[in-house]
């Protein structure tokens, strides 16, 4: 794989490697992206594989059909790719940017792939729906807290419990960088008779650069989030430290499980929290 200016999740890196293996040195087609995703089998991709009843033989026969000679290079691949694959990867990047995320993941690519309609002749409408509903949307995850051990810290940014004096600055920070809905949730989180279950990350100037909470969203016990870190400070381990701080406190309190509701960066929670996706039925 050539050097790209975009960050990829480890799972997507494996997917693209599988896709190139399927291409066998030929020009990569959209169907190779699908086969690569199904071969990965981990996380939501394993769920899609189990429920989609995909026929690998038919997919590979489809991939072997004659195509036009037009091809182009792409930073994500060593192989040449078709213009359709190039367009799909560009659209995936647009989705990543639209969601204000910094890592390109398999969900972005699958959404761009299916909505491109390039595989409509080989996939059923049910298979398309399974891919979109299971692999391209936020999902609920769960972690067993008694067996949870936090990873080593990769950031030493100051993290502390939010105090009454932090309330308005934090609300303003969330409104500016995230949403009014999250700000309302956090505001309600300060209205408790016990310790405030909200933590904030501060830079050297003591400015808020991130936050996390639990038991706050609709006052649901054992429910984590929302959490946010400003984009300029992501990929520095701050989010990891925030979530670990919350989970360790929940573990000490005696919670058996923590639920991550509607999580977008699924692989982040899988890695940092040993979380597993709650299956859809």
UniProtKB/TrEMBL annotation:
Keyword Lyase (UniProt): no
Pfam families in the cross-refs: Acetyltransf_1 (PF00583), Clp_N (PF02861)
Name assigned to this protein: GNAT family N-acetyltransferase
Domain N-acetyltransferase: 157-281
Molecular-function annotations in GO: acyltransferase activity, transferring groups other than amino-acyl groups
Ranges in coiled-coil conformation: none
Entry annotated with the keyword Disulfide bond: no
SUPFAM superfamilies per UniProt: Acyl-CoA N-acyltransferases (Nat) (SSF55729), Double Clp-N motif (SSF81923)
Keyword field: Transferase
InterPro entries assigned to the protein according to its UniProt record, in alphabetical order: Acyl_CoA_acyltransferase, Clp_N_dom_sf, Clp_R_N, GNAT_dom
Gene3D superfamilies referenced in this protein's UniProt entry, alphabetically: 3.40.630.30, Clp, N-terminal domain
């Amino acid at each position: 794989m050539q050097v790209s200016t975009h960050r990829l999740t480890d799972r997507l890196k494996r997917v693209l490697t599988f896709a190139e293996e399927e291409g066998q040195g030929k020009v990569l087609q959209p169907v190779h992206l699908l086969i690569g995703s199904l071969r990965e089998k981990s996380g939501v991709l394993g769920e899609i594989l189990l429920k989609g009843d995909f026929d690998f033989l038919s997919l590979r026969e489809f991939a072997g059909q004659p195509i036009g000679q037009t091809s182009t290079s792409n930073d994500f691949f060593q192989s040449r790719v078709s213009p359709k694959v190039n367009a799909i990867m560009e659209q995936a990047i647009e989705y990543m940017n639209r969601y204000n995320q910094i890592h390109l993941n398999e969900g972005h690519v699958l959404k761009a792939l299916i909505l491109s309609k390039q595989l409509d002749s080989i996939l059923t409408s049910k298979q398309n729906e399974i891919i979109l509903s299971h692999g391209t949307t936020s999902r609920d995850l769960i972690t067993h807290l008694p067996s949870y051990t936090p990873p080593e810290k990769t950031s030493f940014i100051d993290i502390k419990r939010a105090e009454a004096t932090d309330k308005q600055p934090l609300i303003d920070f969330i409104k500016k960088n995230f949403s009014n809905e999250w700000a309302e949730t956090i505001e309600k989180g300060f209205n408790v008779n016990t310790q405030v279950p909200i933590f904030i990350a501060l830079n050297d100037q003591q400015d808020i650069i991130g936050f996390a909470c639990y038991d706050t969203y609709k006052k649901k016990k054992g429910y984590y989030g929302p959490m946010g870190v400003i984009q300029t400070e992501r990929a520095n381990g701050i989010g990891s430290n925030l979530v670990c701080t919350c989970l360790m406190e929940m573990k000490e309190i005696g919670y058996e499980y923590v639920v991550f509701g509607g999580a977008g960066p699924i692989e982040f929670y899988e890695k940092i929290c040993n979380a597993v996706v709650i299956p859809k039925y």
